[in-house]
Design brief:
The chain has about 325 residues and is an alpha/beta fold. The chain contains 11 helices and 15 strands. The radius of gyration is 20 Å and the shape is globular.
């Protein structure tokens, strides 16, 4: 089969598209013939050696796929060959096939296209876990989302609305804000042509944001840390700006808010049952039209470097998908 192979930490252009051995089924696992693969910002960090996890070489990146089960391992009772599934793993998604732990593969209805199903896992599941388990967001609270037109930011806008929040979208262009508005955002802030702190103060009537979903970091995080409501929750999702900020801890003291880390990959490993319950709720919201996957562009697997560069350069509206 074909796969993307990382042989050393290097720019994404040095990833290899090559033949590798097909995976062999094992007890408790299934083989999934992959139809679509979600591309995520951490994938680009991982292959450059810039992520928290540093796998041994050689490895294949990729955490979320959609496809059809072709083989079922011993002891697997709830899945069968021929079923369409979405599946998540820490590695090995950028390939024609994947050996998948059965407990992390979920059947999907035929009404969900594979390209959208593959984009539903990481971005939407991260936002869902962040807002539900980490922030415990409540109806009527104010949710501010940075990077609100990207994959996980757009998911946070949709899920925030599904959970009853008033959503403030923060983006760098009017085009991106228009996408956020079309997906449910109530208030739009273009931080490239306005004072972000003043805009947040105006949008919240001076109260500050109850929940902030920050994917950007850097100087944006510095502003957000000064724009929190009493009992607010500042969710640390990632650092798309490339700069990991420092927190003025005194602000958490005087403003009475919490800074909450969100690391979805570890959550799925430590709380698999809760993760699967979350996915069931997400799939129900999808069929009800409360959430959707906005696919920006589909690349062939052989053009993985181009797909990753588009994501890393923050040029994406919604999700980028790879197809074997």
């Amino acid at each position: 089969m074909k796969a993307i192979v990382c042989e050393k930490f290097a720019p994404v252009e040095e990833l290899q598209y090559k033949d590798v051995a097909d995976p062999e089924v094992q007890p408790g696992h299934v083989i999934v013939d992959i139809e679509a693969i979600g591309v995520n910002y951490p994938d680009g960090l991982l292959v450059q050696g810039l992520y928290q996890m540093k796998p041994p070489f050689p490895f294949t990146p990729g955490t979320e796929v959609a496809g059809v089960i072709s083989e079922v391992g011993e002891g697997v009772k709830h899945l069968k060959a021929g079923q369409r599934v979405v599946a998540m793993n820490m590695l090995n998604g950028y390939a024609d096939k994947i050996l998948q732990p059965a407990q992390l593969a979920m059947p999907i209805p035929d009404s969900i296209p594979s390209e959208e199903a593959a984009g539903l896992i990481t971005a939407h599941a991260t936002a869902h876990h962040a807002l539900k388990q980490r922030a415990n967001i409540q109806p009527g609270e104010t949710l501010l989302v940075t990077g609100a037109a990207g994959g996980t930011g757009l998911a946070a806008v949709q899920i925030g609305k599904a959970m009853g929040a008033k959503v403030i979208a923060v983006c760098s262009t009017q085009e991106k804000l228009d996408i956020a508005k079309a997906n449910g955002a109530d208030i739009l802030i273009n931080y490239s042509d306005t004072d972000l702190k003043a805009a947040i103060k105006e949008a919240t009537d001076g109260k500050g944001a109850d929940v902030v979903y920050d994917v950007v970091g850097g100087v944006t995080f510095d502003v957000l840390s000064r724009s929190m409501a009493w009992n607010g929750r500042l969710l640390v999702i990632g650092f798309a700006s490339g700069t990991i900020p420092k927190l003025p801890v005194n602000l958490t003291l005087v403003k009475g808010y919490s800074v909450v880390g969100v690391f979805w990959g570890t959550f799925t490993m430590k709380e698999p049952q809760t993760f699967m319950e979350n996915m069931q709720e997400l799939l129900a919201w999808y069929t009800e039209g409360k959430v959707k996957v906005v696919v920006d562009e589909v690349f062939p697997l052989s053009e993985t470097a181009n797909a990753l560069n588009k994501v890393m350069n923050r040029q994406v509206i919604g999700k980028v998908i790879l197809k074997p």
